[in-house]
Amino acid sequence: MKKYMLYMFPVMAAMMSCGGGGTAETAATAQPTPAEELRVRLDSIGRHGFAFGMHDATAYGHTWVGLEDSCDVRSVCGDYPGVMNWDLGLIEWNCDKELDGVPFNVIRREVAKQDRRGGINTFSWHVRNPQSRGDSWNCEGDSVVRQCVTAGNPLNDTIKVWISRAADFIGSLRDDEGNRIGVVFRPWHEHTGSWFWWGQDHCSADDYKALWQLTYDIFKEKGIDNVLWAYSPDKDNVTDVASYLERYPGDSIIDIMGGDVYHFDGAAGKDTYLERVRNVIGSACTAARERGKLAAFTETGSEGLPMADWWTSVLLDNIKEYPICYVSVWRNAHDNPKHFYAPYPGQESVPSFIEFYNDDRTLFARDLEKIK
Prior knowledge:
Blueprint: H1 24-28, H2 34-48, E1 50-55, H3 72-77, E2 83-87, H4 104-116, E3 120-124, H5 144-148, H6 154-171, E4 183-186, H7 205-221, E5 227-231, H8 241-244, E6 256-257, H9 270-291, E7 294-295, E8 297-300, H10 310-319, E9 326-329, H11 350-358, E10 362-363, H12 365-369
Parallel strand pairs: 1-2, 1-9, 1-10, 2-3, 3-4, 4-5, 5-6, 6-7, 8-9
């Protein structure tokens, strides 16, 4: 059994309202929302180490899809990831399945199962371009974000409907007793790059912040009280705290200071990766400490895991200095054998991953079940 090690982490008042300020005194006399309960839980997790997460971990894997209770990580180490990320892409079109083919009713079911086993759920959103109708990576159009945040513009009407659909889905996530399940929501991510239509080269800082404000306001108007909001720049254009915060939508919205940094080019790219982690995650942790927020490594990984010892010599050895509550890798595609970010039985990084799993600082689902 793992021994829990105390891991120093900056904290806000235990029951402080999330994504909108509030006071500890007010929260102490009111029933905490699911978001507030999750905020306290993640803070507690961060004091014991950091949870390990994976995208779509139980929806499909390296050689399978749609097998209930299957999971590549569990097949390797005997436990589920402590955090599971899901995506809302195509919820805006009112589709039955998200952009990688996972039915939304399956996501709803798997969120409840992860919550039942003591784990945490997070969401990203690869939302379509509302002007071109292309995917998130389609950046065609004229000032798309500006139009989305301008009242009276047709795209403003469109994006408000789309955000409302995302809010309705998240609000529908319930446990066995019918209570809403607290989740982390990370929209408009990797905005410091320009591969998404909301990226840095496609809108002003003010318009980007207004997009966040619009999203937050719609969720609030609909009474969605089970969301912690995560801000997650990418490696591009982030070198220090000031650049990390250049498009920050504000303390009244954000609960988690995150960052997305991937490792490219195997051993040859290790030093570059570590420098980018210092820039982005180091800045996220500093900003979180200064603002009384949580910090997390919201997306990372090395596609195809070309380094057999990546989990220990790269990831664990170099993020242990950062006071984060979780780190999450991307998915294992069932239809592309080279597109995977976690080990599966027989993959060469399994021994390194087992060592990573057994380390006292890494927390998986069974560990989180003990941390309330």
